# Entry
Amino acid sequence: MSSFFQKIVKLFSYDIGIDLGTANTLVNVKDQGIVLREPSVVAVKGDKVLAVGDEAKRMLGRTPGSVTAIRPLKDGVIADFYITEEMLRYFIKKATARYYLIKPRVLIAIPSGITEVERRAVKESAEAAGARRVHLIEEPMAAAIGVGLPVQEAAGNMIVDIGGGSTEIAVISLGGIVSNKSIRTAGNDLTADIQAHMANQHNVKVGSTMAEQIKINVGSAIPNLDNPPEPFVICGPNKINALPMEVAVTHDEIAHCIDKTIQKMENAIRDALEQTPPELYADVVRNGIYLAGGGALLRGLAKRFSDKFEIEFKVPDDPLHAVAKGTGVALKNINRFSFLIR
Ligand code: ADP
Ligand code: MG
# Structure
């Protein structure tokens, strides 16, 4: 009887977790896992939304004058509330189409750098977008839970989440963030470095999507990799005469052109380590530091950081999914983890 009752209750309530990232939004439906991962991009014309996600990203850089493609979460903060709400509405609807009668309980992972006003705006946006109840969790906490760190224990654990618009570094102990540092230097800056390098060194114009492809195919944080990738051949217009050009791009030239940006990330990690209380620092040295986010996939990055700080940096299996996975685990344990979630 009670199990019948539980089934009914289950039919009429369900939970979803959302990783509201600057580059990608992921939706994790309880008991189903990650059902959606799309770019956090909205295409608008005037104040009319034309497309969201994958479809809107295809329009980036290809839009006629009257259409603009907006990334509503620029640099880890919310640049546009109305567009954020429209984007959330679309993703919630898409992920939960088969439950159209029921409103979900939603847990949203938000950048730790956002203000109280922005937090309230995210909550209100998600409510307006169809959530029954909205909880928030800080992104580095969700990432730490997602990679399986024992966040509730009295031991220091450090996570470095390198996304598109921001890098979030946090030391976690006893279910709280003890010290954190958020900088607006992340994957997008690496892409921009590559774009500038291609124009300055090779006289070839590449768009940001192509520059990102170069980063993913041959990007490297160090010039001397154990297993270097084959050079990546791109085609684009010559900057000067607009004739088509082919360029073979190598990992070591990319390592040089993104070096300064990676140094900024290293400075932020050093700041975070400096702010860490000594007892927890000792734990961090013992446990190592986890990387998360798309930036964790950059070749040689974990090795470069490990050599620099003399602490082991680890890359989880699926760094792009860490935060979304963490929201799923947090939802399953919402009673036990209640103090992690607001
Ligand atoms: P966010 O949480 O801000 O949405 P993500 O964690 O989804 O960001 O990471 C997106 C960033 O990761 C982008 O800058 C993207 O270019 C970068 N990225 C994705 N895959 C790779 C890869 N294989 N190597 C290097 N960078 C990558
Ligand atoms: Mg993220």
About this structure: The two ends are 33 Å apart (CA to CA). The chain is about 40% helix and 25% strand. The mean pLDDT is 91. The first strand starts at residue 15 and ends at 20.
